[in-house]
Amino acid sequence: MKQISSRFSIAVHTLCLIAVSSSEDCTGDYIAESVNTNPVVIRRIMGLLKKAGLVEVRPGVGGASLLKTPEDITLLDIYRAVHVIEDNQLFRFHEDPNEGCPVGRNIESVLQSELSEAQSAMEHRLAQTTLSQLTVKFK
Amino acid sequence: MKQISSRFSIAVHTLCLIAVSSSEDCTGDYIAESVNTNPVVIRRIMGLLKKAGLVEVRPGVGGASLLKTPEDITLLDIYRAVHVIEDNQLFRFHEDPNEGCPVGRNIESVLQSELSEAQSAMEHRLAQTTLSQLTVKFK
DNA sequence: ACCGTTGTAACTATTATAGTTACTACTCGG
DNA sequence: CCGAGTAGTAACTATAATAGTTACAACGGT
């Protein structure tokens, strides 16, 4: 069973940690210890979060901080930042169905629109939750 | 990017074909030709659809037919039948976060409930669409 | 009894992921 | 100005699931 990569849950964990810690504490090694993985895994994910404009990292000396308030970061923002699934690509489609068959010819367009509705429903739900809603539960 | 297996889209294609064709025509080879894949792939998926009580297959002579009307088969039924994602398992979670850290200790329970809401939202949308809504579009 | 079919097992190639090692470049404090 | 600690990144490995393939046994009707 193929699941959505744990990059996403690690990214959420990472951002929660940055939100509740002082900036200078938040080195890759510190985060890696809380997540319980290799620091390089964290640095890679931090690179994606930086590209998405969610965090900034102090090169050389280390430490990270948020570029938006936790109220303004949703799970959907994080999900998109780590490229875990692209637009309309949650469901893999079998390739080149037979054009000579009425079903084969039409299945893709007919089914894809339903699948993309389903994907949207999930993403819409992710957009309802902000980082701040999570961090209050660690107090 | 990990996507949900094309077993699902192939299963939907297969059931559409069974719904619009006469039972005796629906051999594995015939379906495989429409889907454009190897017959064994179809037989494996048919095995799952049988286990789920959606179709019956005539052994020896070949051919398949639905055990429910197309109005009573939803995309969610098919999605569950092909075991493409289990309950609450759409999102992979990183393992063994550090219990010594307030974030590490709580992240799983806090985040999992949001993620399972998101997964439910998607599945709820899949349950809205029936096989008959698809097949009318092939007429 | 034969032919076409289903049901499976076994193997391969492909793909994405997660973790690891190693190295470079950067910043600051001494 | 140098060294300690950190970030950034490339390269490699192990793992896992998938999709396709070959092969073969079992079945059923003509």
TrEMBL record, chains A, B:
Domain of life: Bacteria
SUPFAM superfamilies according to UniProt: Winged helix' DNA-binding domain
Pfam families: Rrf2 (PF02082)
InterPro entries: Tscrpt_reg_Rrf2 (IPR000944), WH-like_DNA-bd_sf (IPR036388), WH_DNA-bd_sf (IPR036390)
PROSITE patterns: HTH_RRF2_2
Protein name: Rrf2 family transcriptional regulator
Organism: Paenibacillus chondroitinus
Upper lineage: Bacteria, Bacillati, Bacillota, Bacilli, Bacillales
